[in-house]
Amino acid sequence: MDVRTVAVIGAGTMGAGIAQVCAQTGWQTRLYDAFPEGLEKGMNTIDTFWEKGIARGKTTEEQKANWSANITQSTDLKESVDGVDLVIEAVPENMQLKQQIFGQLEEMAPSHALLATNTSGLPISAIAESTNCPERVIGMHFFNPVPIMKLLEIVRHDSCSDDTIAAAQSIGSAMGKETILVNDVPGFATSRLGVVLGNEAIRMLADGVASASDIDTAMRLGYRHPMGPLELSDLVGLDVRRDILNSLADAFDDDSYHPHPLLNSLVAEGSLGKKTGRGIYDWNEGEKSDREDLPS
Fold first, then answer.
1. What tens digit of pLDDT does each residue of 153-163 get?
2. Residues paired with residue 72 on neighbouring β-strands, in sequence order
3. SS3 (DSSP) at 269
4. pLDDT digit string, tens, across residues 247-263
5. CA atoms of 204 and 207, how far apart (whole Å)
6. Which one, out of 107, 142, 254, 267, has a CA that is 20 to 30 A from the CA of 65?
7. Residues 131 and 246 occupy one common structural domain
8. Which alpha helices (H) appear in the chain, and where do they start and end?
9. Which of 129, 157, 183 represents a domain boundary (last residue)?
């Protein structure tokens, strides 16, 4: 698929990361968010990432200037998707919101544009059914931080066309990602495995098996995971993890997927992970440290 222009819908952590990678790929990238403050935060996130790269000698000033020229920002959805070849939606994990947006995308985006959703667990078929063109709707599940993580999980549903699947795989390769293809089942492959591991690690923490940092170290050194399950949960967002677990419990009618009470308590107190400064770990000093005041 010949991609020249991309619209990324939603300027949160994932949307900003996706837009950054699209710009670095050389595509004209339009980052959209309905809220100006969210758009500003997303652009600042991208700029900060590039500045850190320059400080570490991994990025040049010239590269940053070229990449920055590839990104424009907008709070007008119709303007953002006008004439694009690819749309990647990255708004919060709310089915009604995603269906509403895809209904608008069908009307506003060109008929040739591939329409992708970055959902980490919601049924792609239900999102696609909100349009009259389900054949060109597909799941493209990126991982945080998007500029670093190599995996791209492509999720096909029954009405997705072979051309759309092939285009998504080609797009992933152009972005420097390793793609896997999975069917549209609850939790896909990655979220289903990831949240179960994270939930069990939280259970172990609550049961006093070991500290959070020691549980994570066990998985990093014993199983060669690049990041422990508790740190990863904080990075993804504890509210996101909780919502996926609840969705899996409902989809499979299986109570074993329900989030551990400690996870529910952390979300209830507003400790959502790195994005709020506190989660399973305390992140307020810039580096993670074990908390002594986890809710009981």
1. 999 999 999 99
2. 30
3. coil
4. 899 999 999 999 999 99
5. 5
6. 142
7. no
8. 13-25, 36-55, 61-69, 77-81, 95-108, 124-128, 162-174, 190-206, 212-222, 229-236, 238-252, 261-268
9. 183
For strand 137-141 and strand 151-156, is the pairing parallel, antiparallel, or unpaired? Answer: antiparallel
Residue 145 CB partners (closer than 8 Å, separation 6+): 17, 49
Whether the model pTM is above 0.85: yes
Domain count, the chain: 2
In a domain, 145, yes or no: yes
Shared domain check, 218 and 136: no
Buried b (16+ CB within 10 A) or exposed e, 112-125: ebbbbbbbbbbbbb
Residue 31 and residue 120 in one domain: yes
Contact 8, 81 (CB under 8 A): no
Q: Exposed, middle or buried, 286 (CB in 10 Å: 0-12/13-18/19+)?
A: exposed
